[in-house]
Hints:
alpha/beta, about 15% strand, globular
Amino acid sequence: MLFGSAILGVLAFLPHALAGDGPSMWLTNGRFFGLANDEQQHEMYRGVPFARPPVGDLRFRKAQPVQPQCGERDAKVFPPACIQSADNTDQSEDCLYMDIYRPYGTNKNSSLPIFVWIHGGSWQGGSATTISWNLAKHAREDGRPFIHIGIQYRLNAFGLLASEGMDQQDLNAALSDQQEALRYIKKNARRMGGDPDKIVLGGSSAGASGTALQWLYSNPEEKLFRGIILGSGGPLQYPQNDVKDYDGPDGPTTKLINLANCQRDQLKDSIQCLRDMPLEELRKHTTSVMSGPGHYTAWPPCFDGLFIKERASDWMKAGKQNKVPIFVARNRDEGTVFTPAETKTEDDIRKLVTSVLIPQTLDDGVFQGLLDAYPNDPSQGSPFGTGDNLFGKDPMWKRGAAIFGDWKYTSTARHALRMAAAQGVDAWGYLWLVSGGDNGASHTADAGMVFRADDPPEDVRTSAMAIQRGYIRFISDLNPGNEDGTPWQNYKDVANILKFDKNATIIQTDDYRSAGIEWVLNNLPAWKK
C-alpha cells in the first residue's frame, strides 16, 4: 500500500488527546509519545522523523535536516517503508524515520550506549521494522543496557539514482539519509538518555555495506560513531560504478528514462521529468528496471567523487577510514541463496558476478582467472563441507555459490579486518557454521541467533549465546570480552577468527580458502572496488 506524504504529515501531528498517553520523550523536533512493552521492559518510539520528507522537489536530492518542532507527536505505529518493488509492504516516499527502543527508567542522565542499525535488502528493499529487538532485552538482562535504534533510508532509484544530469551533492542520497540519521541521533542522544560519544553503527547485508561506507568516508571530525559492526557484508561488497556509466546505452538510469518517456535534449531535464512524475508511475518503471538477471542491484552506491572520493580498496590501503574498533560477522555459505538454482554453465556464473557491474562486462582473462581459482569440483563447492552432495542441482551451482559468496562477502570481511589491523585498530571477527538446510550456513544465517533467539535450540544454544553476548559487549565496551569463556581473538594481535558450530567454538587462522579469496582481493580493480 502506498501512502501520500500529506496523509503522513497529518498523522504525525496528532492532538494532545490522541497522542498524549504512554511514555514520552522530548527531542529537537517535538515531544514523542510511544508504547510501553512490559515483556521486554522497554519504551518503544516508532516513526520518529529525522529528516525532511524527500518529496516534491526533494525527490532524488540530498537529505535535509528535520525542522525543529515544539508540538506533541504520536510514535506508536511503525512508519511505512521506503519505496520498493514489494507489493505487500506499506510504503511511502515520506519514509525517513527511525524506531527507538530504550529500557524502562531511562532518562536524560542515563548516558547509555546507543546502537544504530541499518537494515539490509540489496539497496532495493527492506525497512527498519524487519529486525527483532530481543538483543536490547538481552543486553539489559546482561547488565549492559543500551538504546537500540533502527533507521530507514531511500532505496533503489529513489535513493541512489545516478546520472551526470544530477547535482553532484545529490548523488548517493541514501548515504546522506544515513548520515543525517546519525547526526540527528548524536544531537538528540542526551534527550534520548544516551551518550553521544558512545554510538555504535551496525548493519547486515546491504546494511553492512552502508555501515562500511560510513566507516570509510564519514568525516572523522564529526565523530558520528565510535565503533562499527559488519554482518554479512562490508566495504568491498558492491562495485563503485562511475556515474557516466549509469547514463550509458545499457545503464539503469537510461533504461528508466526510456521507460518513463523522459528523453530530453539535456540529461538534467530528463532527471527533472522523473522528479515530476507521479509516484505510482515512477515506482512501476523503477521496478521494471530492477527486475534484471541474477542478483541484480540496479543502483548500488556510485563513485560520486564527493562523498566517495576514492574507490574503497585504495582508500583503505591509504588508511583513510575512521580509526574505530570493528566487529565483523560472516557465514560459511554466503553465496548459496543468491545463486540461481538453474546455474549450469560457466556463462551462468559470469552473468552472476557481473550483475552488479555497469556495464555488465568483464575481461575474459579476469574471468578465467576466477574460474581457475575455483575448480568445478562439487566437493570444493558451497555449501562447503558437503562433499559431492549436489542437493538436486548441477555441479556448477555449487561452484557458482562458492565464487559468489567469496567474491562478494567473505573477501570483504577478511579485507576489512586486515585494513583495521594494519592501522593498529582493535578488530574481531567470527564465522558461523551452523547449517540451516540445503543452503548451508547461508547469508545472514547468524542474525537470527543474534537478534531473534530468545530460546535457541539446545544444539546451538552455547554458540548462539556466545555471538549474542559478543554483540552486546562490543556495543557496550567496544570489546566482545571473554569473561564467559569465549576466546575472542583481537585481529590486530593475531589474524585469527572464531568459528561457531553446533555448541563448538574453534579458533581459526583467517586464511581458509586462501587461493580463491586472495585471487579476488588481488583483482579488485576489475570489479571497480
